[in-house]
Hints:
By secondary structure, the chain is α/β, with parallel strands linked by helices. It has two domains: about 5-105 and about 255-280, Rossmann fold; about 110-245, Rossmann fold. About 40% of the residues lie in helices and about 20% in strands. Strands 2-1-3-5-6-4 form a six-stranded mixed beta sheet, with helices on both faces. It has a six-stranded parallel beta sheet with strand order 9-8-7-10-11-12, with helices on both faces. Helix 6 links the parallel strand 7 and strand 8 (about 150-155). The protein binds NADPH dihydro-nicotinamide-adenine-dinucleotide phosphate.
Amino acid sequence: xxxLDFLHNLTGSFALQAAGxxxxxxxxxxxxxxxxxxxxxxxxxxxxxxxxAVRGARAMGWGGFNCSLPHKxxxxxxxxGLGESAAIMGAVNCAVRRDGRYIGENTDGKGFLxxxxxxxxxxxxxxxxxxxxxxxxxxxxxxxxxxxxxxxVVNRDARxxxxxxxxxxxxxxxxxxxxxxxxxxGIPDGTDVLVNCTSVGLFPDVDARLDIDVKTxxxxxxxxxxVPSPPNTNLIKDARAxxxxxxxxxxMLVNQGVISIKYWTGQDVDPAVMHAKLREIYGV
Length: 284
Ligand code: NDP
């Protein structure tokens, strides 16, 4: 039986995936490694019960929770405030209890930024971003707030792409441009960082390839893929073969977890422990 203190310190995940998902395993691995008196559990919450779930978390004194699709926007109405980047993006993946209030943060983009900063500073960089969905919005806003010079958004759906570009131009210091994705896309000369924020390559479609001209991937470019499963996507393989510096999606996943844990508990955890757990799960 868990003690009351144990319940008091629960963090939670409002997700639609089944229990046993990699994020749960990764965060629990950190708690166990550091002997932290916290637990991370996965609850299936349907959209019509989202408000009840947040009220339940409040009632039980949870330190916070993650929320995944489709709750990232809808959860905002149930929270008490938003962090800076979550307010710009209009999406929350991490709620944090501060002084008894639940504040919505977005750790996806911050996690990406942290893994990118291990290989290059985004300051002044020219970025090409493939995709304009939730992950792309999170990554683009954090890159812009971190000083990227410009972000060219490449997306099939022109309206979705234009929404993200407008958001960048109106709410951040970076310049946003739109390239509507029609046919094979070349990566422009002068690109410093290419980021795949589409779901192309995500399990089970592991053989899928982005419709880009791989001959335009050049040594000196940093090429990042946010797809975490499998980490070794065709983009990562092509970019490595072209001599680019590559970043797979595991770093973003680990770092968003590290940042979330810091928000909830105030404690810094060792990313290597979480990385090792993910590598064990994905067999890489
Ligand atoms: P969304 O559904 O919000 O967006 C999907 C994006 O992919 C859209 O821009 C869509 O374009 C584009 N897309 C889909 N298929 C294709 C295709 N065949 N060719 C070109 N573009 C395509 O998803 P999310 O943004 O939430 O997730 C995107 C990826 O990010 C997923 O793989 C997810 O696993 C990953 N992710 C990784 C995280 C991590 O920690 N590593 C965290 C969060 C997400 P269009 O608008 O034209 O349809």
